[in-house]
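Support case: S-adenosyl-L-homocysteine complex. Customer-provided input:
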Amino acid sequence: MSAAGQGPNKPLKPVKALARPRFPARLDELLPQAAKPSSLPREHLAKPAPPSVPSRGVGMDSVAVRRGMVQKIAALGIHDAGVLAAMDKVERHLFVDSALVGQAYEDTSLPIGLGQTISKPSVVARMLALLVQGRPSPLGRVLEIGTGCGYQAALLAQLATEVYSIERLRGLHDKARANLRLLRLPNLHLLYGDGMLAFAKGAPYAAIIAAAGGEAIPAAWTEQLAMGGRLVAPVHVDAQSQALMVVDKTPQGLVYNRHEAVHFVPLKSGTL
Ligand code: SAH
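Agent response - structure generated as follows:
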């Protein structure tokens, strides 16, 4: 994992230089490892935390409790093996405050500070399942808008060759960096900035996922999506309610599919 923490007026810059695909980029060029599975050992995508990692007093066998969470998610109809394996592997209790670890594997959203929340595991799983459904595995380069505590970013790092995750609140960007440090995910890059602008330097993306709901999908997101790429985001359908929206970028244009109602924190512009 690497992190970039620029001030709001400086251009965003990941620490690692990006190998830019040639223009026009094709999705299969963004997926070199997918085409050559042997070049992408799964263990290089995500190394589990070493056993010495303090469990923040979780006071339970987190493997068994996490497995229970995954079984409940599967019972809700989410069967993608890669998504379930990622949720089985990433320790959600490492991403919540110590007072909340007892609830880390319940299907509930939890506060992560600065008025933001980590989504319910079943909603996270549902969004990831929509993102990967019918797509090559692993996904190519992925952009997450709204790093929050970093939990979903860690899951994405299991499912994609490269992940850029952007957060507008400095406090949460720093918190995610601290939470993720011990997991050592070399394919995950944290960015501090306004995700409404996406992150042009990493574009085009095979997939974009947002964890905050806006009035509409910002143009920068669909512009920075690769041809054949997919975007999953909560979007307001009226003042009170949001729905999950899936957008596929096809040669015939953008194809929008609206799914179930959800409730996410608001997508806001600028940085704090
Ligand atoms: N995926 C996160 C969920 C965090 S909640 C997790 O696993 O914890 C959504 C996050 O989106 C909040 O932290 C909020 O600050 C952030 N956010 C809202 N608008 C944003 C924007 N324009 N750019 C980047 N992050 C944004």
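The CA atoms of residues 192 and 207 lie 19 Å apart.

Case will auto-close in a few days if no follow-up is received.
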